[in-house]
Amino acid sequence: MDPFTPRRPNGSRKKLALSTKEYNKVTGTLASARRSRQYIEDDIHEDGINGDSRSRGYDEPSFIAETSFVRAPLNSRVVSNGSVPIASFKGKGKQESLDRIPLDIQEALILEDLLYVLMGIEGVYIRHHPDYSPEDDDPLQGIRFVVSPSLDHSLCDVVERILPMATYYTAISSFIEDRSVSDYGTVNHALCAALRDMLKDYQTLLSQLEHAFNTSPQFSLQKLWFYIHPTVHTLSLLYQLISELAMTDDPSLSLSSSPSSSDLEDNERDEALGLGGAHLKAAMSQMKKNALGVSVDSSTNIKVIGGEVLAIIYERVQNMSGDPAANKLYGTLLRAAGKPYVTMLQTWITTGKLLDPYGELCVKESKSINRGTLEVDYVDEYWDKRYTLRDGSTLSGPSKRQAGVPSVRSNSGRLPGGACIPPLLERWKHKVLLAGKYLNVIRECGIETKSHLQEKEAGELSMDDERFYQFIEEAYTHANRTLLQLLIKDQELVPRLRSLRRTFFLSQSSFLTHFLDLAQTELRKHTSKTTSLVKLQSLLELALNTDMQGEDAMFREDVKVTLASTNLYTWLMKVVTVSGVIGEGEATPSEVGGLEDGRKSSNKDREKEDSDKITIIDALALDYNVKFPLSLVISRKTILRYQLLFRFLLHCKHVEQTLTNMWIEQKTAVWRQAVPHHPDFEKWRLRVHLLRSRMLAFVQQIMAFATAEVLEPNWRKLEVKLSKVSTVDQLLRDHVDFLDTCLKECMLTSSRLLRPFSKLMQTCSTFALYTGNFTKSANQALTAAEAQYGDQSMAKRWDFLMKFETNFNHWFGVHYNYVQYAASSENTSALTLVNRLKTIKPQS
């Protein structure tokens, strides 16, 4: 039940002018005027309260019967927010002109009305603006009051200067009531608490002024203005702040303007036609916003909370820096509103716990991403997306528009809600994110970290205090140092990276030769459902246990055998064609899933047919198992890069081995026996030797370039960086950059280089497969040379050989030209490869 606010009846106001005795009493002291009017109210109490209440449909007998409550001075100052208009108890329709009342009496009446109005209660001679409607008007804009036109002009000028205070007070009170609900978050709650404390001081001032009005005959309108003049400026500053917060939260408020006479006529016509009401006006307001191009996007649905509130207050501090009073006032509000924000931020950077139930902090958590995603995570989602900044920015700079990042507000240009980072915190936001992220990783490992910073957390820090940013720096340094020590020393990161290098980059990897010899029979088979990974894994473990020593033996159980479903170069061509660079952005994981599983049913059938043609040696790859938190550094994304380089080197090694076997085969007598009476055969045999030598030289030069001039130098650079690394993010970037550089310099990220290279390798491997055919053809040529009719099939032999030679020369020329172009434009490391390939280039 809303509180009942008694009103003074106006039925006998004329007696003030009829009684000379009462006139002398009022002019002698303002307090006696109040007593005389109280006496008049006793005579018409029944008509003024009971009768008027019944006419208004408002009946509260318990309040009316309690005379002490009705006449309580404090109760007469209580603001009523009920559905019954306050003016209905004040004789709104019985207001008389002040023209016939002496100036002193006018001042007394207006003073009393002002004490009501300054609390938001409508007076007798100071009324609500004619356009005011409690149902339709926005309470955050405040209630406007107008003074009776019959008031003396000298008094009216002073009253007009005081009346804005009532508008400010009602607006601020409505703002506090509106923003104190839980949906608006702790920053708004703290701001409302600070505003409420300031209004308590304002109400204390009004109670002091009321006491002076009741007791001092010398209290006048000028004295009232003198006492409240400083408060007018303070309330106006608060009103400007809450107006900006309200307009930011609801852009439609900025579209409203003062109503004109034509608007009033339209409203009257609408009411007469039954078209008035708040719902219709709301619909018309929405149509007006749409007509003016005010888009309703995701940002308009986000309340002004958290960092955005602090950003608005800070901007006002900066804009009002020339006004000491405004600067002090807004600075006080900034410190008060920022306390919950600072507390949440301190908890985050000292414990790694994100306690932000209303989404106010600049850091957000994706709870759907957990440690379980690390097993199949090809994009480092756990590290990159588990905790992020709400504005979508990264250390590398502002990124393209990301999913989950709201659009900026059209009326202010700021990001909404918690995505708006306070300007004071802008340059520290990445350290805030990383400090909590580092500690969160440590906490996920079950390690509790304690530092002296948690003891400092209880101290009073604010966003405009330099000590607060020193605290952030210390917390970031502590978290970074702790996690780096955990990864590098406790988890032995560097030895693991060395083991990966020796395993995947074929550096001192005698185990691979042993494994290829052991699994020679299995590797010649085609991939199918009957392929035994268990047998391949057991053979690999046998080779590892035999050949691995030292620190490599510590991690041999983490190396596993796996089979790809697509040929290396086919897969690379598809990925590069779509994303441009291996692992760039987030295109790689989608390709991993999409290209291996197929896009459509026809593609699935085609890929199934292709996969059936792949031998196990072409699909063979190694995998590496690591546990959290090392999986942050050696993630699925980085292991994918290691696998690409391993498959590239393994394929080159396999083709080299087959060409070497061909050379061994061609050391037999049939290839070395002199046949002087068959020069054409000797020439053909020499061309076969020459083509095999060129192919073998090409593969060996590619392998030598990749290992000695790409992988090894880049590994040395990585070791130097690891010895100097200072942040975990820098460690992650250095590792990924190392792998990306190796892929690029090995020419596995350019479609122009991949296609001719894959054709060359296919030509070499196919040529080696025909070793037995060439030997058989040579035997037939020797036998035919001794026959009576000679060798009749020599032309076919030449034709068969020339197909290989022409194909090899063509693709070699294309590849050589592209390597030259790449060396001169984007990949300077390829200059040495150009010099190596010159020796193989056919003489024109």
From TrEMBL:
All residue ranges annotated as the Gamma tubulin complex component C-terminal domain in the record: 493-837
Main location: cytoplasm
Gene Ontology MF terms: gamma-tubulin binding; microtubule minus-end binding
Record domain Gamma tubulin complex component protein N-terminal: where: 111-489
GO-annotated biological processes: cytoplasmic microtubule organization; meiotic cell cycle; microtubule nucleation; mitotic cell cycle; spindle assembly
Pfam family, one: GCP_C_terminal
GO terms for cellular component: gamma-tubulin complex; microtubule; mitotic spindle pole body; spindle pole
Recorded superkingdom: Eukaryota
Subcellular location(s) per record: Cytoplasm, Cytoskeleton, Microtubule organizing center
Keywords: Cytoplasm, Cytoskeleton, Microtubule
Region (Disordered): 589-608
Amino acid composition bias (Basic and acidic residues), ranges on this chain: 596-608
Family per similarity comment: Belongs to the TUBGCP family.
Full protein name: Spindle pole body component
Provenance organism: Heliocybe sulcata
